[in-house]
Write a structure and sequence with these properties.
The complex is a heterodimer of chains A (about 350) and B (about 625). Chain A has about 350 residues and is α/β, with parallel strands linked by helices. Helix content of chain A is about 30%, strand content about 20%. Chain A has 11 helices and 14 strands. The termini of chain A are far apart. By secondary structure, chain B is of the alpha/beta class. Chain B has 3 domains: about 220 residues, 3-Layer(aba) Sandwich (Pyruvate-ferredoxin Oxidoreductase, domain 3); about 190 residues, Thiamin diphosphate (ThDP)-binding fold, Pyr/PP domains (Rossmann fold, 3-Layer(aba) Sandwich), CATH 3.40.50.970; about 100 residues, Rossmann fold. Chain B has 21 helices and 22 strands. Chain B is globular and about 85 Å long. Chain B starts with 14 loop residues before the first strand and ends with a helix. Classes of the chains: A alpha/beta (about 350), B alpha/beta (about 625). Chains A and B meet through β2, α2, α4, α10 and α11 of A and α1, β9, α10, α12 and α13 of B.
């Protein structure tokens, strides 16, 4: 249960790298104890297995703690402006479909100021891998609530508790048409690594929510998945083709679907065939999964949706360009200038 | 003389030769006035005239029929001499309904030709136009103007009686009756319009037949109806020899980019969000994928500019276009391009503002926004085309400078240049200046912010280049290394360096071309779409013997190096602008000259006459 099925095998061809090759010469400047360190390490560890020359890899970010990420990767990188990384990445892919592009964002950057761009990069199915570090707080601006903070969250900007309901990043991504959606946790390095590799291998827009701890402004916000006892009770590991089962060995629970409504049952009280079997290729049931949370339901971790074969935005654009050039040849400005109505003055 | 010119139709009535004429077609926005105007423009161009046009249409897509705000019009001036503007006052006005008459009559010269479609002057339309009684019944109208009451609707219907078209389809042909009639009055050849009809309705022979019949009926009506005593000839203008086409500003901007894409062999990524009056640039480029121009209709203005920046980072030419409100939204991202020192081209097709303002009307009030409309010290290069055809050269120049200096370049066009047309002498693409592009691949001694000593440009590196992996971003950089730096002295140095880089673009600017003597009483300084009106006014003043010259700035940041010296050769400096005084402030601040503004902000081009009056006043004051 500790590995995610379907992750690409370590690259057998291509360049041989180690984690060190992806470490830049810059001092990492996150707070001591920040969950971002673990994510950085997991990504640097996962990179050699992608089998991609590192000069072909670009990390694009917006603004926020997470967005410092590109400085620490020894690849190409562009730390841009708040919320706009998906749009920058889209332009980059239009110019250079050959590059492997990662977008690093956070819950504020991606879902608040940049919510619109996230929507469109996902629905267009641009071939980029989007990593959203979700810590349910604004860290870089020192502790205001975020669009994923729970209702009633007391912060510096909401001393009496926040009055707005949170958004679920994975449910958002699925609702707007993302073709790959997964969730992982900063304190589970192995799961992060495997999930990242699968996301990176996806053809199309891949969205990964990484539950990340901000130990300064929102410590243990994900304690439900950190605390050993709680984790055993609530964590649901998703595996394609396997029944949705969770809970301690002596009290295994499972999910069944009654119509479109999920229901928690005791595994021993239902026939095995009644249990909900996870199907990554079904975005409809993935959307139901994405909305489940403790205590009423388990918390799904892993790949929720993985739809193969959806058209990729930049591929379609390039195909149009190549077709018109194949049919009519490359453009010639001299000919264009003389096209249509012209007249000669002697 | 045009070799494509069709023989003028034989006219039995006397013909008078004019040097120029200003005419306006006006009607409901559904009456086809834009097509009519464009088609007449083509006829005049075929006849070898110099031309300037001014389309004017409501912001509403289908404004309620018959209303004043639903009136759409197309004005042009054509002549046998150089034509600089669409003209101030009208020699002829075609009013297809009462609303068009009401909106436009004030612009018709006393004694001018007034053609009205009488069928439209019925109770409902009169009420909608706010006429208590039918203005055609007021005898003073016929006293003041050469009024021609023509039942255009009825005559159109009659011409199409036996064709299998419904009433609505027949009615839609009536604009070509007006076109045929005006073509007869000004003896412009019908041939290009006949060709256009055949092309446009190639799939529907009945429509071809209908439109040709109505066009010819209008023409024959002029010739035979007794109400027209004479018609007019306008000789071909003396124009530089060569091949011409009619060009509007937005298409010229698009084609300038195509020329640059072909020359550099680098793809262009054009990110844009639809906005009036810039949308047609996106639409034009989308038709030319053969040039490796990748158009991206973004989700918003910010994504439009940031996608362009992402493309430039990837080694393509990133371009975005918008109008004032969209440029305001792009401000932060343009600052990123300043900081990241990437090439970026931004077209601002200015319109009336602030806020939504007058979306379909022209203005020049974004100059300050272009220069200063971003946070902190954020200098960029600013260029402005002076005519629709000049938009081609300016777009090409913008790409050239953006790449050479690794800097954002903003082009300030406007609604008038965007949609206005002129006969345009085709350039020789081979004669355009070269756009050297160099992507660094050498590892030895590489730093992301190592600068070219002449231009201060940093190296352009395409991701995918082995060994040159590096990170850039919006945080202040240490010069040369590009590492994040919060050092006070480094920031001061970088602020000055970014400014100096833009300043050095001045070495690209040719010496100022002065229209008139190099010293005198008044120098008129303009920029952008006012070129025609200013030039016409100045030439008129010169003919009156005034010591007046003019210059027109195509480079607004940096300003031409010889500008200060030029200004000082005149006793007074006049700066006409369609804003409340923006360039004039800059000239006063930069050169400590007592320049005065002439400012009208009405959403329409400045008129030659009013500029001439302002010149004359200043000439008086100079004595």
């Amino acid at each position: 249960m500790s590995t995610v099925k379907g992750a690409p095998e370590a690259a057998s061809s291509g360049p041989r790298y180690t984690k060190k090759d992806f470490e830049s010469d810059q001092d990492v400047r996150w707070c001591p104890g920040c969950g971002d360190y673990a994510i950085l390490s997991a990504i640097q560890k996962a990179m050699p297995d992608l089998g991609i020359p590192k000069e072909d890899i670009v990390f694009i970010s917006g603004i926020g703690c997470s967005s410092r990420f590109p400085y620490y990767m020894n690849t190409y990188g562009f730390h841009t402006i708040h919320g706009r990384a998906p749009a920058i990445a889209t332009g980059l892919k239009l110019a250079r479909p050959d590059l492997k592009v990662f977008v690093v964002t956070g819950d504020g950057d991606g879902l608040s100021i940049g919510g619109n761009h996230l929507l469109h990069v996902l629905r267009r199915n641009v071939n980029v891998t989007i990593l959203m570090f979700n810590n349910k707080i604004y860290g870089l601006t020192k502790g205001q609530y975020s669009p994923t903070s729970e209702l009633g969250k007391v912060t510096k900007s909401t001393p009496l508790g926040s009055a707005d309901r949170p958004v679920s990043p994975c449910a958002f991504a699925l609702a707007v048409g993302a073709t790959f959606v997964a969730r992982t946790v900063d304190r589970n390095i192995a799961h992060m690594e495997e999930t990242l590799k699968r996301a990176a291998a996806h053809k199309g827009a891949a969205f990964v929510e990484i539950l990340q701890n901000c130990n300064v402004y929102n410590d243990l916000a994900w304690n439900v998945l950190y605390d050993r006892e709680s984790k055993v009770l609530h964590e649901l590991r998703l595996e394609h083709g396997k029944s949705l089962i969770f809970g301690p060995p002596d009290a295994r629970k499972g999910l069944v679907l009654e119509g479109v409504k999920p229901k928690v049952v005791a595994v021993k009280e239902v026939p095995e065939s009644a249990l909900w079997v996870h199907d990554e290729t079904d975005r409809g049931t993935a959307l139901i999964l994405a909305q489940l949370w403790a205590p009423d339901y388990p918390i799904p971790i892993g790949v929720m949706a993985n739809e193969q074969g959806a058209p990729i935005y930049e591929d379609l654009v390039l195909q149009q360009e190549q077709k018109v050039i194949a049919d009519r040849g490359e453009g010639d400005i001299a000919a264009l200038l003389r096209s249509g109505e012209t007249w000669t003055i002697k | 003389m045009s070799d494509a010119m069709a023989p003028a139709p034989a006219a039995a009535k006397p013909r008078r030769t004019l040097t120029r004429a200003v005419i306006r077609f006006a009607g409901d926005s559904g009456d086809g006035m834009q097509v009519t105007g464009e088609q007449f423009t083509t006829e005049a161009a075929w006849a070898g005239n110099d031309i300037s046009t001014l389309p004017n249409f409501p912001a509403e897509i289908r404004a309620p029929a018959g209303t004043l705000f639903g009136v759409s019009s197309f004005q042009l001036q054509f002549g046998s001499q150089r034509v600089y503007t669409p003209g101030d006052q009208l020699d002829a006005l075609v009013a297809m309904n009462p609303a068009a008459l009401k909106v436009h009559l004030a612009d018709l010269k006393p004694g001018g030709i007034l053609i009205v479609n009488t069928a439209a002057f019925e109770e409902r339309n009169l009420t909608k136009a706010g006429y208590a009684k039918n203005p055609l019944e007021d005898p003073s109208l016929a006293e003041k103007f050469r009024l021609h009451q023509v039942d255009i609707t009825g005559l159109t219907k009659a011409a199409l009686e036996d064709l299998p078209l419904n009433a609505k389809e027949k009615d839609r042909c009536k604009n070509f009756f007006a076109l045929g009639l005006v073509s007869w009055i000004y003896t412009r050849p019908l041939d290009p319009t006949l060709d256009a009809i055949k092309k446009r309705f190639a799939k529907n022979p009945t429509f071809v037949e209908a439109n040709i019949r109505v066009l010819k009926a209008g023409h024959a009506f002029g010739e035979t109806a007794e109400i027209f005593a004479e018609n007019y000839g306008i000789d071909p203008a003396e124009m530089a020899p060569g091949v011409y086409r009619s060009m509007i500003g937005n298409r010229a901007l698009a084609w300038g980019l195509l020329a640059a894409a072909q020359r550099t062999k680098i793809p262009i990524v054009f990110g844009a969000y639809p906005i009036t009056p810039a949308s047609s640039i996106l639409e034009e480029l989308a038709m030319h994928k053969r040039f490796k121009v990748r158009t991206f209709q973004a989700e918003d203005e910010i994504a439009a500019v940031t996608s362009a920046i992402g493309a430039s980072f990837g080694g393509a030419i990133g371009v975005t276009a918008s109008s004032g409100p969209g440029i305001a939204l792009k401000g932060e991202a343009i600052g990123l391009a300043v900081m990241a020192e990437l090439p970026l081209v931004i077209f601002d097709i200015q319109r009336g503002g602030p806020s939504t303002g007058l979306p379909t009307k022209t203005e020049q009030a974004d100059l300050m926004q272009a220069l200063y409309g971003r946070n902190s010290e954020s200098p960029i290069v600013v260029l402005a085309p002076s005519s629709p055809g000049d938009c081609f050269y300016i777009a090409y120049e913008a790409v050239r400078i953006a790449i050479k200096y690794m800097v954002p370049v903003m082009v300030l066009s406007d609604g008038y240049l965007a949609n206005g047309s002129e006969p345009w002498l085709l350039p020789d693409p081979k004669a355009l200046p070269d756009i050297p592009t160099h992507f660094r691949t050498e590892k030895e001694g590489f730093f992301p912010y190592l600068r070219d000593p002449a231009t201060l440009a940093r190296p352009w590196v395409r991701p995918g280049t082995p060994g040159l992996e590096h990170r850039i971003g919006g945080i202040e950089k240490e010069d040369v290394t590009g590492n994040i730096s919060y050092e006070p002295e480094n920031h001061d140095h970088m602020v000055r360096t970014r400014a100096e880089k833009v300043r050095r673009v001045a070495q690209e600017i040719p010496p100022i071309s002065i229209n008139g003597p190099h010293t005198g009483d008044v120098l008129v300084v303009g920029w952008g779409g006012t070129y025609g009106a200013i030039t016409a006014a100045v030439e008129e003043a010169q003919m009156e013997g005034k010591a007046v010259s003019s210059i027109h700035l195509r480079y607004l940041n940096p300003l031409p190096p010889d500008l200060g010296q030029t200004l000082r050769q005149f006793r007074k400096v006049l700066v006409p602008e369609i804003n409340s005084g923006q360039l004039v402030r800059i000239l006063r601040a930069e050169y400590l000259v007592d320049a005065v503004g002439f400012n009208r902000v009405r959403g329409v081009p400045l008129q030659t006459q009013e500029i001439l009056e302002a010149i004359n006043q200043l000439v008086e004051a100079a004595r």
